[in-house]
Amino acid sequence: MTDTSGPSPADVAPIDDWNRLLDGRTAVVTGGGAGIGKAVCVLFARHGVHVEVAEVDADAAATTVAEIIAAGGSARSHVVDVTKPEAVSTFAADVLADHPALSVLVNNVGDYRPLVRFPDSTPESWQTMYAVNLQHIFAVTHAFLPTMMRQRRGSIINVHSVEAMRGYPGDPVYGAMKAAAAAFTTDLAIAVGRHGVRVNGIGPDLIQTPQVDYLSGYEDKTDLWPSWAPAGRLGWPDDVARVALFLASDLSAYVTGHNIPVDGGSLAGGRWFFSPTEGRFVNRPRNL
Ligand SMILES: NC(=O)c1ccc[n+]([C@@H]2O[C@H](COP(=O)([O-])OP(=O)(O)OC[C@H]3O[C@@H](n4cnc5c(N)ncnc54)[C@H](O)[C@@H]3O)[C@@H](O)[C@H]2O)c1
């Protein structure tokens, strides 16, 4: 008799419709009202997922949901400040009451503002960076992980920063919180992998959003993009959303515990600058 219980190529989940990679699933996206979070909500909805948007800005949340519904998708907004653990508990109870089989979570909220240089920082400013960049990842993940483990199906995506993976002189406390989010991603992935839950991170850089405006004041410097990003251009929220779609869907069924920079190559490029005047990469730029 053939033993059919062992490893088999059929362990790779079939993809029925490549245009609807998340068909029939439910996702929570925090900070879905603008920037990267909004692009994730809209792209996920196009791929058949029902999106539960957690957003502190009621108008922004409503706009995202209206766009999704106008395009034939399904979404609901929740006005919630994810830095408040009690608000996260109420939000999670609301979502799970209607969608107990939630299987995708994108922890996207994060902010470098207000930027405080380390010598000027205080216990209060450290707490602010902790609350907006790390604590809510613990709280929201803690709220939704049990249902994913019960179903043996889940994908958690933590949007942190490329500053999690390199030295960030601007605010080392912000950099430390993002690095902790990346480490949490890897650690949790190992802990829950055998329960069918995958955990991955995305480290954006150079993405044009309301929070980080790379265009204003640089209108006459667009020729320098090859110096700033090996990909040669500014990044957009859709660049990040597409990677999130890969990580949320069965395309990445065998990928867990990784932190993927979505940065146009800025991390890989290290300290090498492309000089348009010299026509080559330089590691000691005099004038780019
Ligand atoms: N844009 C970039 O180049 C870049 C670079 C590095 C890291 N990131 C990270 O990517 C993520 C998204 O960044 P973005 O540039 O799209 O940000 P953004 O500020 O443009 O958008 C964030 C959204 O989250 C909402 N939000 C903020 N605080 C909230 C809270 N406490 N509760 C609920 N919603 C809240 C905002 O209202 C807004 O709609 C963040 O974690 C950020 O740190 C972005």
What key attributes describe this structure?
288 residues; Rossmann fold; two-stranded antiparallel ribbon; 8 helices; 38% helix; globular
In short:
With 288 residues, the protein is of the alpha/beta class. The chain has 8 helices and 9 strands. Helix content is 38%, strand content 16%.
What does this structure look like?
This protein is an alpha/beta fold. The chain has one domain: Rossmann fold (3-Layer(aba) Sandwich), CATH 3.40.50.720. The protein is built from 8 helices and 9 strands. The strands form 2 sheets. A 7-stranded parallel sheet has the order 3-2-1-4-5-6-7, with helices on both faces. α3 runs parallel beside α4. The radius of gyration is 20 Å and the shape is globular. It starts with 25 loop residues before the first strand and ends in a 6-residue tail after the last strand. The model has no long low-confidence stretch (mean pLDDT 94). The structure holds nicotinamide-adenine-dinucleotide. The site of nicotinamide-adenine-dinucleotide (NAD) has 30 residues, from α1 and β2.
Shape: globular
CATH class: Alpha Beta
Task: Count all strands and give the number.
Answer: 9
Q: What strand line-up does the widest sheet have?
A: 3-2-1-4-5-6-7
Count helical runs.
8
CATH superfamily: NAD(P)-binding Rossmann-like Domain
| Termini Cα gap | 70 Å
- What percent of the residues sit in helical stretches (DSSP H or I)? 25-40%
Low-confidence stretches: none
SS class: alpha/beta
Domains counted in the coordinates: how many? 1
**SS strand fraction:** 15-25%
Second-tier CATH architecture: 3-Layer(aba) Sandwich
- CATH names the topology as Rossmann fold
For the residues shown, what is the average pLDDT? 94
Largest β sheet strand count, sense and barrel closure: 7 strands, parallel
N-to-C series of helices and strands: EHEHEHEHEHEHHEHEE
Q: Which ligands does the model contain, each kind named once? A: nicotinamide-adenine-dinucleotide
